[in-house]
């Protein structure tokens, strides 16, 4: 059972990596519709990952509790250890790709916000933006 869920979780991580790489390419093309569409799929994969991770954690805990005094590494076969290591490595890779994706999202967001501020300047009150600047044209008395 443990190996089944490890194989499935590794596949989920691979799918998340692939989708995130595709999103990075879509950001570069300014194809935001595809990014919004993949967001739902990524959310579903994250939920599936969390459920499988919970099952794996429970199974590992069960194995340890059934064998008191033994280290987990003694209780797992080499294939299971390798799969756990592969999962860890893929999670590290996903983290790196997500960081790159987040940096691009922030850059695009800052660009659009600065563009919006250029078109519709806002007044600052302390550190908070309180609304559009009053235009001098509208304040002129006749």
Describe the secondary-structure layout.
Layout: H1 2-28, H2 32-66, H3 72-75, H4 78-119, E1 122-125, E2 128-132, H5 136-139
Antiparallel strand pairs: 1-2
What keyword list fits this structure?
mainly alpha, two-stranded antiparallel sheet, 2 strands, 142 residues
Would you write up a description of this structure?
- Strand 1 (122-125) and strand 2 form a beta hairpin.
- The mean pLDDT is 87.
- The protein has one domain.
- By secondary structure, the chain is mainly alpha-helical.
- It is elongated, with a radius of gyration of 24 Å.
- It contains 5 helices and 2 strands, in the order ααααββα.
- The longest helix is centred in the last third of the chain and has 42 residues, at 78-119.
- Strands 1-2 form a two-stranded antiparallel sheet.
- It has helices at residues 2-28, 32-66, 72-75, 78-119, 136-139; strands spanning 122-125, 128-132.
Uncertain residue segments: none
Strand content: 5-15%
Structural class: mainly alpha
Mean model confidence by pLDDT? 87
Main beta sheet, described?
2 strands, antiparallel
Q: How many domain modules?
A: 1
Rg, nearest Å: 24 Å
* Order of strands across the main sheet: 1-2
What's the count of strands? 2
- What letter string, H or E per element, gives the SSE order? HHHHEEH
Shape from CA axes?
elongated
Count of individual helical segments = 5
Helix content: over 70%
Sum this structure up briefly.
With 142 residues, the protein is mainly alpha-helical. It is built from 5 helices and 2 strands; from the N terminus they run H-H-H-H-E-E-H. It has helices at residues 2-28, 32-66, 72-75, 78-119, 136-139, and strands at residues 122-125, 128-132.
């Amino acid at each position: 059972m443990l190996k089944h869920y490890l194989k499935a979780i590794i596949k989920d991580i691979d799918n998340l990596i692939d989708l995130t790489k595709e999103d990075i390419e879509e950001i570069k093309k300014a194809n935001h519709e595809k990014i919004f569409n993949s967001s739902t799929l990524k959310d579903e994969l994250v939920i599936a990952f969390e459920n499988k991770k919970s099952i794996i954690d429970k199974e590992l805990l069960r194995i340890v509790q059934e064998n008191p005094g033994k280290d987990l590494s003694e209780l797992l076969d080499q294939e299971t250890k390798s799969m756990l290591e592969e999962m860890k490595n893929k999670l590290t890779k996903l983290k790196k790709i997500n960081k790159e994706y987040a940096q691009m999202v922030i850059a695009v967001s800052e660009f659009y916000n600065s563009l919006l501020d250029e078109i519709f300047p806002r007044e600052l009150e302390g550190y908070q933006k309180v609304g559009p600047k009053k235009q001098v044209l509208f304040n002129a008395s006749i």
